Amino acid sequence: MNAQISNGDTTKLPIMTIHDWSTGPYPARVRIALAEKNLQSRVQFVSVDLWKGEHKKPAFLAKNYSGTLPVLELDDGTLIAECTAITEYLDALDGAPVLTGRTPREKGAIHMMSKRAELELLDAISVYFHHATPGLGPDVEIYQNAEWGLRQRDKALRGMAYFDAVLKQQPFVAGAFFSMADITLIGGLIFAGLVELAVPAEYEALHAWYARMNERPSVKNRVTMSEPA
Ligand SMILES: N[C@@H](CCC(=O)N[C@@H](CS)C(=O)NCC(=O)O)C(=O)O
Fold first, then answer.
1. Which residue in 75, 101, 161, 181 has the fewest CB atoms around it within 10 Å?
2. Residues 155-174 pLDDT 10s
3. Diameter of the chain measured on Cα atoms
4. Using one digit for the tens of pLDDT, what is the confidence trace for 37-50?
5. Other CB atoms closer than 10 Å to residue 108's CB: what's the count?
6. Which CATH number fits domain 104-216: 3.30.230.10, 1.20.1050.10, 1.10.287.3610, 3.40.50.1380?
7. Nearest CA to ligand 1 atom 16
8. How many A from CA of 68 to the centre of ligand 1?
9. Would the pTM count as exceeding 0.90?
10. CB of 55 closer than 6 angstroms to any ligand 1 atom
11. Which atom of ligand 1 is nearest to the CA of 140?
């Protein structure tokens, strides 16, 4: 299949399927990317119940070996997991706004900062959630290591300090414009909110940036995006 379209006419794209969970912080990343790219109408959502552990059952594992959400399924059956990979796919479908960079320099900087937002914040909070809190409950959390979880919580707090320093210097995570790196950090702060890990008040630049991000329709409407109109 050659879904790559052009001339900005996304209405001709075949319908894609997103397997996700509407309030999840990782699914939020793809939902925000879809809305920023104005691709919502080309997508249908299939809900996978994290709290019932549906993502660890054979039917879902056949779609994503890692047993995590979201997963993008194309009309030819191609399955793409990993938020970064899905965002790169969506970004390659058409032009503006570009979320993953236009030039080699932009692409490198955005990928680096997005990876950093994952490593230092979002994934660390995820480990904290799954290991040092009840997580998704005993049926899903079959192995927990609270000490490891608490270390990752502390790592996430250090990550918040780092991103505060970055955002004191520049308006967006990877520089002068909104990109996938902002989306990844938004995912991290959504997860921080869910686990009640407050961003320290002194990180004013991070707070100000997040307030600005929350004004974007893509961020505001991410959960309701999959509800019938
Ligand atoms: N590296 C993956 C991580 C995805 C991920 O952890 N997704 C969460 C959804 S919020 C999940 O499926 N968690 C369930 C679990 O780990 O049991 C990505 O970027 O897509």
1. 75
2. 999 999 999 999 999 999 99
3. 52
4. 999 999 999 999 99
5. 12
6. 1.20.1050.10
7. 68
8. 4
9. yes
10. yes
11. 17
For domain 10-99+219-226, give the CATH number: 3.40.30.10
126 Cβ below 6 A of ligand 1: yes
Total Cβ atoms within 10 A of residue 98? 20
Sign of the dihedral through C-alpha 200, 160, 220, 44: negative
Q: Please count the CA atoms within 13 angstroms of the CA of 89 that sit on its side-chain side.
A: 21
> Measuring CA to CA, how many Å separate 179 from each of 2, 41, 155, 218?
25, 21, 24, 13
> pLDDT band for position 4 (50/70/90)?
low
Establish whether residue 54 lines the binding site of ligand 1, counting it when its CB lies within 6 angstroms of any ligand atom: no
Using alpha carbons only, what angle is made at residue 77 by residues 72 and 80, rounded to the nearest 5 degrees? 30
Q: What atom in ligand 1 is closest to the CA of residue 81?
A: 20
Task: Say how many Å lie between the CA of residue 123 and the centre of ligand 1.
Answer: 9
Residues 6+ positions from 84 with CB-CB distance below 8 Å:
111, 114, 115, 118, 180, 184
Q: Taking CA 226 as the corner, what is the angle to CA 61 and CA 140, rounded to the nearest 5 degrees?
A: 35
CB 69 within 8 A of CB 21: yes
Token couple for 127: 């480990």
Nearest residue (CA) to ligand 1, atom 14 = 68
Compute, in angstroms, the gap from residue 34 CA to the centroid of ligand 1. 18
Decide whether any atom of ligand 1 lies within 6 Å of the 68 Cβ: yes
Domain residue limits, the chain = 10-99+219-226, 104-216
